[in-house]
């Protein structure tokens, strides 16, 4: 992390932020042994320039992890480049193109990663719904408002695919449920392809799921996706009030115990009375969300040293 020569105000804000990050109890990752992943909806990141302080704060938060799936990255990548410069020379980004219509909201999905901890394996693609021939055209019956973005990575002896999505909001609950079901079906079909790049898929992002006992959650988990045990419980709400489960990290476990018991949310907000610790001139909660976000990062640690498990699996057939 290279914050460089910042103002005393930003330095003080960084110290306050570091205390909030420490409260999340994120264990350090170990090269080739563990990987800290996170999903974070950074509100309209790139639509309007962030303040210098916000850029440093965003970098500080991202730097706690090894691989982060970011949603709501917009067309202008200037602020992303500033964040990467602060993170340092080992950090990279792989991102999708922006979708310019209303449903796409000019959003991208990005993977920001530390190349010392994770290696990009080459696959990066948007998920496309299944098509059927109609006349001379091949058409999809339904669509993703914002195309999920899938990429392949390797950490330690663990090769995996990671898919990040931002599910529609909209006026229709049924439309959101249908899109969640479409995604669940797509992921299941992907991992069962004859020549699938890898059957171990981590799925994360902003699913706009209020709770883990509602029809939205049932739709996305209908094909076998599971929540890691470490993320179960009501205390993992990812909105600023901590009472909604909009963001999720889900998986198909080939090796059940590679998901460790470490996971949670980084609460960089706490409440309105703490805003001035980061932005001394003061701002409303809404203004704060456009500097940092209205979502909190959800994170999980993965055990990437699975060579012993692979060998055991070979022996057991």
Description:
The chain has 317 residues and is of the alpha+beta class. The protein has one domain: Endonuclease/exonuclease/phosphatase (Deoxyribonuclease I, Chain A), CATH 3.60.10.10. Helices cover 25% and strands 27% of the residues. The chain contains eight helices and 13 strands. The strands form three sheets. A six-stranded mixed beta sheet has the order 3-4-2-1-13-12, with helices on one face. Strand 9, helix 4 and strand 10 form a beta-alpha-beta unit. The model has no long low-confidence stretch (mean pLDDT 93).
Layout: helices, strands, pairs:
Blueprint (H helix, E strand, L loop, with lengths): L7 H15 L11 E12 L6 H11 L4 E7 L4 H10 L3 E5 L12 E7 L4 E8 L4 E4 L2 E4 L8 E7 L2 E9 L6 H19 L9 E6 L8 H6 L26 E5 L7 E7 L9 H4 L6 H5 L8 E6 L3 H10 L1
Parallel strand pairs: 1-2, 9-10
Antiparallel strand pairs: 1-13, 2-4, 3-4, 5-8, 6-7, 8-9, 10-11, 12-13
């Amino acid at each position: 992390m290279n914050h460089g020569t910042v103002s005393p105000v930003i330095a003080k804000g960084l110290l306050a932020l570091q205390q909030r990050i420490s409260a999340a109890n994120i264990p350090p990752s170990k090269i080739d042994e563990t990987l800290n992943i996170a999903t974070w909806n950074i509100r309209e990141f790139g639509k309007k320039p962030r303040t210098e302080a916000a850029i440093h704060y965003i970098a500080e938060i991202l730097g706690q992890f090894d691989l982060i799936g970011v949603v709501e990255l917009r067309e202008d990548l200037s602020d992303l480049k500033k964040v990467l410069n602060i993170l340092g020379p080992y950090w990279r980004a792989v991102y999708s193109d922006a979708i310019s219509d209303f449903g796409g909201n000019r959003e991208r999905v990005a993977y920001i990663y530390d190349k010392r901890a994770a290696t990009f394996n080459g696959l990066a693609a948007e998920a496309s719904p299944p098509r059927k021939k109609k006349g001379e055209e091949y058409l999809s019956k339904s669509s993703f408002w914002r195309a999920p973005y899938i990429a392949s990575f390797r950490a330690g002896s663990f090769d995996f695919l990671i898919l990040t999505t931002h599910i529609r909001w909209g006026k229709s609950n049924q439309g959101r449920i249908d899109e969640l079901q479409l995604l669940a079906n797509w992921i299941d079909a992907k991992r069962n392809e004859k020549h699938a790049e890898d059957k171990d898929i981590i799925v994360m992002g902003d699913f706009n799921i209020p709770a883990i006992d509602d029809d939205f959650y049932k739709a996305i988990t209908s094909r076998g996706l599971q929540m890691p045990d470490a993320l179960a419980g009501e205390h993992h709400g990812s909105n600023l009030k901590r009472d909604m489960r909009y963001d999720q990290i889900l998986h198909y476990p080939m090796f059940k115990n590679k998901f460790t018991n470490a996971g949670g949310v980084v609460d960089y907000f706490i409440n309105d009375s703490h805003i001035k610790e980061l932005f001394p001139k003061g701002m409303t909660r809404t203004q704060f969300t456009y500097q940092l976000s209205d979502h909190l990062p959800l994170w999980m640690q993965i055990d990437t040293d699975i060579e012993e498990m692979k060998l055991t699996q070979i022996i057991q057939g």
